[in-house]
Specification:
Helix content: under 10%
Strand order of the largest sheet: 1-27-26-25
Order of helices and strands: EEEEEEEEEEHEEEEEHEEEEEEEEEEEE
Radius of gyration: 20 Å
Structural class: mainly beta
Shape: globular
Distance between the termini: 12 Å
Largest sheet: 4 strands, antiparallel
């Protein structure tokens, strides 16, 4: 168990893809713990030497955070808030963008167009938690819509989107806050403000995870027959070629003044879990977690309460079927989790320690003990070579990054 950052400031790991491909560096941002998005740099630390480098420094009053790393290249993607923020346009869910830093060059991931008629391939709001697909070709994100937020914040429903490398996309620039992007960006989830109780309709799509390179799973909030929120697991099959990403379905990709951007033709979400009648229905929202697929895309893992009310790990095939309870712990899993690159284990926080469980039997092995403070539930992330796992914990008043060996 080794502390790798020491500066008197916070260090924030994203929930996945925080390691460089060579398993030597961890990328992080420096925003304060909690909801404040005020960090000005994206940085990385060498876990062997402790050397810290600045990857990107924001300018003109912008703030940055939530960095993830390309699986092969030294390429980083992260959120950037507005430059020169003012009373009318400040950082918010619907006012942020993805930015890619690579070889000293910085490019917008997604384009923004908030003036009708909108531009196909551009977004009309803010993207968040950008994660490369396993082959590095696509980038997933969650999304909030500026256009509908201006009409009524209740219409601005969280959705899941994907950026594909078929840009650039250049809006006409009729508003000073519009900008071009290097990728073609679309939504792949479908939401409605008023889901029919007991149906597969959802009013929120979030906490997505790649299932191989061509599918994306996410949590969607359904309503029970009584009208209560029940988070369920959904999956979408993604287009295979450029034409597929650019072919509109029944509704326009770019949306209308009255409607959210829509998925490409043939992209339809499919519900995988049906938990409305369980003793504790729905996937767990506490701890916050992102659904995660086995490295071979054969199983999707998620957190849900068992019949005793304890938060456990569960597995389900991407094709559907009955979920299988993997862990049978006496107390709740306390964090987001990730698969070991081998697919043989998953890592998380349990009993205020870093733990990993066997992906076949659920048997738990503790990797750490005697923490000064409990590990953060935000991130438990294995290195690509599988030799280490990283997390955060408060140390002498600041959130610091720690690592330990996995064997």
């Amino acid at each position: 168990m080794k502390q790798v950052t020491f500066a008197s400031r916070h260090h924030q790991l994203t929930n996945t893809n925080t390691w460089t491909a060579d398993s030597r560096w961890l990328a992080f941002d420096v925003r304060p713990s909690g909801a404040s998005f005020t960090g000005e740099t994206i940085e990385r630390v060498n876990v062997e030497t402790g050397e810290v480098e600045v990857i990107y420094r924001a300018r003109h009053g912008a703030h940055v955070g939530v960095v993830t790393v390309h699986p092969v290249q030294e390429k980083y993607v992260f959120i950037k808030g507005p430059e020169n923020p003012d009373a009318a346009w400040q950082y918010d869910f619907h006012h942020r963008q993805g930015v890619v830093a690579h070889n000293g060059q910085v490019d917008n991931l997604d384009a923004m167009d908030i003036t009708a008629p909108y531009t196909p391939g551009a977004l009309r709001g803010g993207s968040h938690v950008h994660v490369f697909s396993p082959n590095g070709r696509l980038v997933s994100f969650t999304y909030n819509d500026h256009v509908l937020h201006e009409r009524d914040p209740a219409l601005d429903l969280r959705n899941v989107g994907v950026a594909s490398p078929f840009g650039p996309v250049t809006p006409q620039g009729q508003h000073p806050r519009e900008y071009a992007g290097t990728y073609w960006s679309v939504l792949v989830s479908s939401t409605t403000p008023t889901p029919v109780p007991g149906s597969d309709e959802i009013n929120r799509a979030y906490e997505e995870g790649w299932v191989g390179n061509n599918r994306l799973a996410f949590i969607g909030d359904t309503l029970s027959a009584k009208g209560e929120k029940v988070p369920e697991l959904f999956i979408v099959e993604l287009p295979q070629d450029e034409q597929g990403w650019k072919r509109a379905g029944e509704r326009p990709l770019q949306g209308t003044p009255d409607s959210m951007p829509a998925p490409p033709a043939g992209v339809a979400q499919r519900r995988l879990t049906f938990t409305h009648k369980k003793a504790y229905p729905g996937l767990a929202n506490v701890p916050r977690h992102w659904v995660r697929s086995h490295p071979q895309g054969t199983q999707i893992a998620f957190l849900m309460r068992d019949d005793k009310g304890v938060v456990q790990l569960w597995l389900i095939a991407p094709e559907g079927g009955e979920p299988r309870q993997l862990t049978h712990n006496a107390s709740d899993i306390q964090s987001a989790f990730n698969w070991h690159p081998s697919g043989n284990m998953l890592g998380f926080v349990l009993e205020n320690r870093i733990a990993q469980c066997d992906a076949a039997t659920g048997k738990v092995t503790f990797l750490t003990s005697d923490h000064g403070n409990p590990p953060s539930g935000d991130a438990v992330v294995f290195s690509p070579d599988g030799a280490r796992v990283a997390w955060m914990e408060e140390t002498a008043g600041f959130r610091q990054i720690w690592v330990t060996e996995t064997a």
